[in-house]
Amino acid sequence: MTHGQVLARFGHALSDATRARLLLALRESPGYPAELADLLGVTRQNMSNHLACLRGCGLVVAVPEGRRTRYELAGPQIRQALDSLLGLVLAVDPAACPDAAIKGCC
Prior knowledge:
This is ArsR family transcriptional regulator. InterPro entries: ArsR-like_HTH, HTH_ArsR_DNA-bd_dom, HTH_Metal-responsive_Reg, WH-like_DNA-bd_sf, WH_DNA-bd_sf. One of its GO terms (biological process) is response to cadmium ion. It holds the Pfam family HTH_5. GO terms for molecular function: cadmium ion sensor activity; DNA binding; DNA-binding transcription factor activity; lead ion binding. By secondary structure, the chain is mainly alpha-helical. The protein has one domain: Orthogonal Bundle (Arc Repressor Mutant, subunit A). About 55% of the residues lie in helices and about 10% in strands. The protein has 5 helices and 2 strands, in the order ααααββα. It has a two-stranded antiparallel ribbon with strand order 1-2. β1 and β2 form a beta hairpin. α3 crosses α4. The longest helix is centred in the middle third of the chain and has 13 residues. It is globular and about 50 Å long.
């Protein structure tokens, strides 16, 4: 996979506010779908879809635990990348980026 493909996958994952919040929750600790759905205030079906997307992007892994499945970040590099992104200070220009006015965007 090229660097561009990796960044595109990460960007796709972060382009949705729920997936971004989910990654931040998993950055803190692994979780189970039902608990993550409750934490983020989404339906279990919606959570399942977001987890499937993040798995497909290679950002999270599913760890079977008997009858349950725990989700966690795919590796310490994902946590480090999120930490680095959270440390950024962005100079947002709403005139140049109309999407900056979107609720939850900036």
